[in-house]
């Protein structure tokens, strides 16, 4: 475990450093009126610096800055962005200024609050802010009304972000060339955002240096906050191929660290100018961050938790104070300190009093700056993540809270950690210290009661049009789009492309066929990983499995990328009602029917978890593979009763109910059916559509081992068909087709409801299955192969926003394309860094040029298999080719029966496809045996009402 603080020097080196400190000027600091430059980065944690032990980060300028500064080694902030900024500005806990969230008007700094910028301005300082404000975007909340002379900021909590109400940035903003609000007028800048903010701050400092007036420069870049957008290839190259504790840096890690290295370069640029201008001896420069890291899984200096948690890793951040000739270099101050202390410290340094009637929670750090071992009475620091659902403040007292003193941290009213003995917060000692616990509870009760009357934003109503956008449109023209499209998002589980609209001669799917006639059918749509959870996670986040690190059925993506914005979150941020009925993220099917499974509560306002008689009658199933669990068994049941009694019938009924209730507002309703996933259960009438004598199986031939890698057939064991007889396989296929027709009938009910309500042409309908499904091809059953039947799945876009009607698209597309497509059709800017591309050009002209291939991967026995699919070819590598290669020509061999990889005449084809594959999966990008994050423990359905039927 990494040490939390740098070890104290010993021996001659300690004597030397103490002597150096003693030789520095001992003049009083109060009233010295230095220039003050406060640099606070966004989402960079304590461990995200080389000087704090990070083994791969390249931060030489900050390392030197650290070595020449006074370091507050037990310095704390709030767990998220806006709360920290509110506390820093006011010197008191953020709740006392009404800030309990980062969005939805709850980020607005109370208009009754006094900021440190106002105090310094009154004391004769010039004041400027450069970067992120995040304390309200409405005019009266803006920094020019809160004490800042010079204002150069983006809106909301991040560049390009928009939320309902007051929080939002300029429309279409990006990390490169952003539009920045400068003293009331937008400027379209050039360059990477962090370079832009530091550059403008340096320019302003340069303009102030000859005026004989002290200045306060508040430099707040939005990096390395998500979306993770690298400043450029040179920065990425610093981290390519690097590992931490045996874990390769992934596609999200490299840009995150690249953004930090760019911050480091800008710190070097700033400090160089300060020296060049002769300002160093009269300028206090402070570096800190606003909350814990978002990448705690990589390196967190041994601390528990990260951003958004009440543990040490969520609140402890770097704090380096640099003032050459006045403050000692390389000195650690270990007292318990916090962001609330900056307000009184700056006021004392400026030689001004805190205004009468303004109360602060913090203490001046001046005594510690003069003497790191000065008396510093113990104190309580109160932490609360906030972010409770609207109207639930009163019930959220102990939700993600903590109280801290110099030794202990008391978390959630249930955990106590002795940080002297256990800095990593691994052992709960609540039973060993009853007196400490009682004191903490008493202090917390008193504090909680005191902040309740000050939560002024809990029921605040924001403006109809986001202020930044309205301002931008006034300046440049344009305006808000008309009412957005509704989105009906229909998912099926394990459904392959054996549908009438895809040309299957037997399967009856009239409602899906009609949906395709009114939209665009994608004939070559490919999932990114043919297994439920990895595929669904990739689709809903717009990221590939190597970015989500979800390769199994247990890992939750937020354990790896906690702040990712899912598709429904993006829509909710723009005023949509978002709900889920049934299976959208992963469920153990059928084991978790009736529960929330591995759901993602932040994605929804409301969830419904149906449970029908199919779940209750599983004992009636005929199981041909009794040694397999029902979730992977060939088992069938021709069920009694009506469609509406089955789980998927209830899914349809509940979806219709939500459409009816929310038809007057833009909605994103995700309807997740559980069939045709096994066990194959459908009402008897649907079995009758498929007489057994019409059910055929593909020819059963196993290619010679020297022509096909063994891993290609490893998804079905025992091979073939899990060892069932041909008759049992035919019965299973009959039941599978019955389930398809049953689900198709439920989709027909949804479409009829849209027509009845007059919503069909106001609603974008997206139909998809999470992956394909083998029904005996290659002797395989189910999924998890790289063959066409497993990787390919149905995808139909229909209804509003789809220009072409009744067309089929032959181009290869990917499921990661669905997120940006829905965003595009709804007129929204998706997060930067998504893996896919909008399919809008193909929805307008399905035959339009399209040069993007499709990538699919699997993991068999810990060995990765990677596939690239072009319009003609499929090329597959197992373990980067070390355990086999496959090549198929779909013009001549659509069933992938003839592996051409060993044929010399196709070597040029492989030479063309291999670099395409390797660009997506560079050699040695990860180990042979895929490593996943730990499963999310104890996840509960939250973030909306949950109903189980």
Write the layout of secondary structure elements.
Elements (H helix, E strand, L loop, with lengths): L10 H13 L11 E7 L18 H8 L2 E7 L4 H10 L25 H7 L3 E7 L17 E5 L24 E4 L2 E4 L4 H16 L6 E6 L12 H4 L6 E2 L2 E2 L4 H24 L6 E7 L22 H4 L3 E4 L8 E8 L3 H8 L16 H5 L10 E4 L16 E4 L3 E4 L3 E4 L15 H18 L15 H10 L9 E8 L16 H8 L1 E8 L5 H10 L3 H4 L18 H6 L4 E6 L23 E4 L3 H4 L5 E2 L11 E5 L7 H15 L5 E10 L3 E4 H4 L38 H31 L6 E7 L4 E2 L5 E2 L5 H4 L3 E5 L7 E8 L3 H8 L14 H5 L9 E7 L2 E7 L3 E6 L6 E5 L17 H14 L24 E4 L1
Parallel strand pairs: 1-7, 1-10, 2-12, 3-4, 3-7, 17-23, 17-25, 18-29, 19-20, 19-23, 20-34, 22-24
Antiparallel strand pairs: 2-11, 4-5, 5-6, 8-9, 10-11, 13-14, 14-15, 15-16, 18-28, 21-22, 25-28, 26-27, 30-31, 31-32, 32-33
Helix pairs in contact: 5-7, 18-20
Question: Could you explain the architecture of this structure?
Answer:
- This protein has 949 residues and is of the alpha/beta class.
- Helices cover 25% and strands 19% of the residues.
- It contains 24 helices and 34 strands.
- Strands 6-5-4-3-7-1-10-11-2-12 form a 10-stranded mixed β-sheet, with helices on both faces.
- Helix 5 runs parallel beside helix 7 and helix 18 (647-661) packs parallel to helix 20 (726-756).
- The longest helix is centred in the last third of the chain and has 31 residues, at 726-756.
- The two termini are 47 Å apart.
- Residues 1-27 and 925-949 have low confidence and may be disordered.
